[in-house]
Design goal:
mainly alpha; 13 helices; two-stranded antiparallel ribbon; 2 domains; 4 strands; 231 residues; single chain
């Protein structure tokens, strides 16, 4: 199933999207989370395909108790850099673990409300309510909450026209908590770039979420080109 502007506000589709995104953290890469067709190197070894194979869908998760869901997820493994990764618990060596069964159950309870908030976003402009609703789901937090909003609101354009750019600063700040973004921001700061001032300038120009540009800095030339424009 593809995710697009036409189907993302359907609660069943939104659940599948957010369920997949909920795994987008170390040790998994973005590429392994989403897999084919854009990342064929992870064919039959991606989060999205694993959730498809397990039939992790809204109507099914709604009917399951958390322990049954935990066991269902435990039975599926991915290979991550030659190590087994179980789908039920996400272990962080330095930050404890994330229980995905609990997170998916909370998502199943809250996703219809989130879909309604997104549907009304163009008229209400209330991105803070969307942020709080997503952030309240176990396992999300600022980085995943902001990535959720980035993809749905900025990339797919859901409700974007109705939002005051100043109110998107919380989302931009959340993106800077993501590991890759944080590392690249620190690298720019070491060169004298004030990241908060940069986000402020982007906000004045109407698009603070353009800070996602840091995701695209894949080479030394990319960094030099950006520094030439912001220094």
């Amino acid at each position: 199933m593809g995710f697009n502007q036409e189907n993302i506000l359907d609660a069943n589709v939104l659940f599948r999207f957010m369920a997949t995104l909920s795994y987008d953290m170390r040790p998994l890469s973005y590429q392994q989370v989403w897999g084919p067709p854009n990342h064929p190197e992870f064919s039959n070894n991606s989060v999205k395909q694993a959730l498809d194979q397990l039939s992790i869908e809204l109507t099914i998760v709604e009917r399951m108790d958390e322990s049954a869901l935990w066991e269902k997820l435990r039975g599926k493994e991915l290979m991550v850099r030659e190590e087994k990764f179980r789908m039920n618990v996400h272990d962080w060596k330095d930050r404890g673990s994330v229980d995905h069964a609990r997170g998916l159950k909370e998502l199943a309870v809250k996703v219809k409300g989130i879909a309604e908030l997104l549907k009304n976003l163009r008229s209400t402009g209330n991105i803070e309510a969307v942020y709080k609703a997503v952030d309240s789901i176990f396992g999300f937090g600022p980085a995943l909450t902001s990535k959720t909003i980035l993809f749905i609101v900025r990339c797919l354009g859901i409700g974007l026209a109705g939002i005051d750019p100043k109110n998107l600063r919380i989302v931009a700040d959340g993106l800077l908590n993501e590991l890759v973004m944080e590392r690249r921001a620190k690298r720019l700061e070491a060169k004298g770039v004030d990241i908060q001032s940069l986000v402020g300038k982007m906000t004045e120009l109407g698009d603070p979420l353009a800070i996602e540009l840091l995701y695209l800095l894949d080479s030394e030339r990319d960094f030099k080109d950006l520094l030439a424009h912001v220094s």
